[in-house]
């Protein structure tokens, strides 16, 4: 069983945090799936990944961009692993499905949204009951990550 990391966003939005985490995943030689809560959100994240840095490129795509297995980072709203990813990022209210194909699952939630926090707590309980190794990380005022549980 892989590990599940809960990232509690407090001071920086997803658009500032996700690209760095994806870069780190690719540096490890991993492939990633980013699952969003609704299809409309995909296009905004695609734009973010194209423009977040002027001096680098983060390879990514969706079903519209050709074969999913060719994408190191695949964005979707479905519970799927079409690029044989090692890591799954659940963002914008995406519901965890089958976690077994992944070495790592990162569930990111907005700490300023009470409903998102409640959902994350429910997911935490399910993940722990499922026997996964779960850790909880919270953003500090400086934007760094601090392990809390």
How would you describe this structure to a colleague?
- By secondary structure, the protein is an alpha/beta fold.
- It has a single domain, classed as DNA polymerase III subunit chi (Rossmann fold), CATH 3.40.50.10110.
- The protein is 28% helix and 26% strand.
- It contains three helices and seven strands; from the N terminus they run βαβαβββαββ.
- The longest helix is centred in the last third of the chain and has 16 residues, at 114-129.
- It is globular.
- It starts with a strand and ends with a strand.
- The model has no long low-confidence stretch (mean pLDDT 93).
Give a topology summary:
Blueprint: E1 3-9, H1 14-27, E2 32-36, H2 40-51, E3 73-76, E4 87-91, E5 104-110, H3 114-129, E6 133-139, E7 145-147
**Beta strand count:** 7
Look at the structure and give the mean pLDDT.
93
- What kind of sheet is the major sheet? 7 strands, mixed
Total discrete domains: 1
Structural class, please? Answer: alpha/beta
Query: What name does the CATH topology carry?
Result: Rossmann fold
The CATH homologous superfamily is called DNA polymerase III subunit chi
What's the oligomerization state? single chain
Under the CATH scheme, which class?
Alpha Beta
